[in-house]
Amino acid sequence: MTDTTSADTTVLVCGAGAMGRQIAMLAALGGYETRLYDVAPEQLDIALDDLRTIMARRVAKQRNTAEEAEAAFARLAVCDDLAEAAADADAVIEAVVERLDVKRELFAKLGELVPEEAVLATNSSSIVSSKLADVVPNPERLCNLHFFNPPLVLTLVELVRGPHTSSSTIERFSAIADRMGRTTVLLEKEIFGFVVNRVLRAIFDEAIALHEAGIASIEDIDTAVTAGLNHPIGPFALLDLTGIDVNYHIKALEAEELGDPAAGPSRTLTELYEAGRLGRKSGQGFYDYRAEGER
Ligand SMILES: NC(=O)c1ccc[n+]([C@@H]2O[C@H](COP(=O)([O-])OP(=O)(O)OC[C@H]3O[C@@H](n4cnc5c(N)ncnc54)[C@H](O)[C@@H]3O)[C@@H](O)[C@H]2O)c1
User: Is residue 197 annotated as a catalytic residue, yes or no?
Assistant: First the structure.
């Protein structure tokens, strides 16, 4: 593959959900001609409305100028026809639902529709690009590029090299992330959870283990982490915020991926999950949120 790092001008984002729409906005703000594709046309209207609201807020808070926002919207086109959206893409970032079968089908189609030189990345949080490599012709152009939610606010991306990924692909996505104003960390090997979620999960696991061993209360463990480590939020408050169910499923998936039942959900997490105490969204998790504005 020739080095086309500086020549990339057009980015296609597949999936206009919570992540895809903001990733597309970042690409447009970075100066790329950007196509945002979704299989559900109504999602494209919702995404554009949402982006208008978000960008108006960002302009009001002086995070972007009105001119930057307008220029970015002028570079952003939504499209529900994949062949049309993919025809001149230099780079594709996939952010569709977290289902391997859906992603494999999409990447197989992309393999046929994008120019041969285009590079391809998945924003998946748990599916490494190796699981997609066999459906893509020339898998050296495939890798993971993992954004954080919400992408317009959290500046990190994890760029993950699969065994099939070429250095040129890494360089091109690195340059794209740079122009999107993101800070990139490069993972030289694929691993479940990448870096951020592995570190976070280690903190969650230790906090829960300390609590289960009767060492300290959940309030005191949260206080230890906020006041002692300067984290903005303690692990139990964060588990409640992100959702007990989400964390339960991630741990179950981790145990499956690692082939290690011990890596599965802890006793406490399982009890809360089975009791429907899913965190803030259900009113109760590790903490009780039912009294308005209180924890
Ligand atoms: N939400 C997060 O916090 C977060 C963070 C990092 C990474 N991710 C990853 O980003 C991806 C998307 O997550 P999300 O939260 O934006 O999901 P979402 O449910 O908000 O959006 C998914 C979108 O994909 C569309 N879609 C489904 N099948 C499609 C197809 N075949 N072609 C095109 N579009 C299709 C849906 O219509 C929907 O608009 C997932 O892989 C997820 O693991 C999510």
Answer: yes
